[in-house]
Every structure is written in C-alpha cells, then in structure tokens.
UniProtKB/TrEMBL annotation:
This is Rho termination factor-like N-terminal domain-containing protein. It holds the Pfam family Rho_N. Gene3D superfamilies: 3.10.450.50. Residues 7-48 form the Rho termination factor-like N-terminal domain.
Amino acid sequence: MANAEKQLQAYNMNDLRRLAKTISVKKYSTFKKDDLIKEITAVQKAPETAAYAYKYIDDASFNTWKEAAEAEKSDALYPLEDIFGLYIMGYAFEDTEKEDHFYLTDTVIDLFKVVDTKENAEARLEVQRRLNLIRAALHLYGIVSFDQLIHLFKKYYDEDVTPSELVGFLEGSPYDISIDEDNEQIVIDDMNYAQYEMVKKLQGDRPYYEPEFGKFIKFSDPNYIDESSNHKKLKEWIEKNIDVPRSKHQSIYISLLQLIMRGEKQDEIVKYLMSLDVEFKNVQEQRDFFDNIAGIVENTRHFKYRGHKESELKTKTVVKEVKVGRNDPCPCGSGKKYKKCCGA
C-alpha cells in the first residue's frame, strides 16, 4: 500500500488543488504545498470523505475496495479501470516501478468497514442510478440538453427533476462532467471545442435515440459497443488474419474501431495493419475488408446523429429492442427485480 502523504509529494500544485476540490478541502487555494498535502490527507481519513467515495465511485472501484477490505490485502496491484474512482480521490496511486499498475493507500482499506452501512448502501444505489442514466446519455449523445435529461429521468425512472437539481447533483460528483449552464446542457469530458462545434451543428434538432431501458442503460459502460453484423465480421477477420495471442484481439479490434470512427483514410488503416505484419493478398480481399468497414461506419451510433446509426436514418427503421422482463434484475444495478424498481 501507499502512504498518501508521501505519494502526494510527487503531485504538482494544480493536481493537488484539483484533488482538494474533489474531496471538499476548505480554503484549499490558500495553502502552500506541504500544508495542503497535510490537509488533504487529514480530510481523506475523515469518515465523511470515505462515505462520499462509497456512494459515488464506479462499481469496479467499489468492488476492488470491498474485496481488499474483506481480504485485508495490502500489496495487490490493479489496472486503472479497477480503481479509477479511488484514484481520482487520492486513495490509490500508480506503482513507480510497474507502469499502469496501481495500489491502494494505507488509509482506504480500514475506512471501508467504517462506512459500509445499510444507510450508505441505500444512498449509493440511488446515486449510481442517477449517474448511470447521465453516463448513458453522454456516451450516446456527447452533448445533452437539460430538457433531454429531465425527459429521460421521467421516461426511465418516473422521476421529476429540475435543472437546478441536475446541476447540484452533477457538481457534487467527483467525475469531470462539463456543465454548460448558459446553454443548459452537459458535454462529454473528452470533446474538444472543434469537435463540439461540429457535433452541435450536425445534431441540429434531430431526435434523440431512446431505446427500451434495458438497452439504453448498457451505454453507461464506456466500453459497451452496440455491435452490428459488420462489427462481428471485423472481429472474425482479426482472429483469422492477425497472428497475435488471442488476448490481444480485443485491443486490436478497439484500435481499428478508433481509426475508423475518427475518419482515417484507407492508407492509415493499411499502415496500422502492416505494423501488425498483415498485408492483403489481392485487391479483392482489400475491397471486401473496406466494404465491411463502410458497413461499420453506417452501423455505429454517433454523437452527430444523437445516438442513431446512419443506417437507421437512411431507412427510417425503428429497431424494436428486447424488453426487460418484470421479474428480471433491474438493469440500473439496484439488485432489485425490475418490477419493484425502474419498472414499478
């Protein structure tokens, strides 16, 4: 485990102030570095801060924290995706000798048992339900108006929220969610200004994609891909044509999708494949590959189409999604049956 005070010495003042703001250190801008570090570590040890982390961190981080506390493990290393929520609150640090591996601080494990109460568990379910709906909307639309969020809360949760309640909830989250109160909208955090201008223009007054709740909430996972037959065909092509360990197939698939959706030219995609020692045997094989790529472009959900696929807009086909059964677990993650939760 890491000693937080020692590890924070490597942070610059901007990072320290960002962390201090996240965990609600009072008057953090007035402290010098050493004093700010002492104040941060003192606040981190407070049960109130741990309770805040308990309610707001993502499920992967929560499960890592819980398992570490139950096993009283002090030396385990984790990938960033397993501890991200703890990392942004300064409860985890990167191993200096093993890049992209992280470990928990000597404070956080004991704190889990302090804050793992029935009251906090119930509060966490409600916070995560709200966060998951907002994340799903951002991952589908990129730019989401307050009106659309209010509509989604009513449609999927039968919950009435106001713009001020939305802003208050979002500002209380430790995650970077860009809130544009002037235009009454939120924007996904990794969208730069040029991308924003392009997406906003292309969206126009296009309707939002709103599938059945069980499908919609899947988009709260940033790694979820709504795969078409073209996506699956690309996966099969990778397995057949790229001679790497099977464990690397998924990362190659994701890299290709990123190239495709960034609109890279064929030459760039060919260059990437050549870096993997892959060359097309003939012109027809290359043509078939890029025909399938065109199919992926047409069957990928885009911010610019507010979550719709290009193929859906062309055909104006409404895709009927599979509904959640009333006795199935609720997709919001509450652990309750759908009929006793979001389907009530």
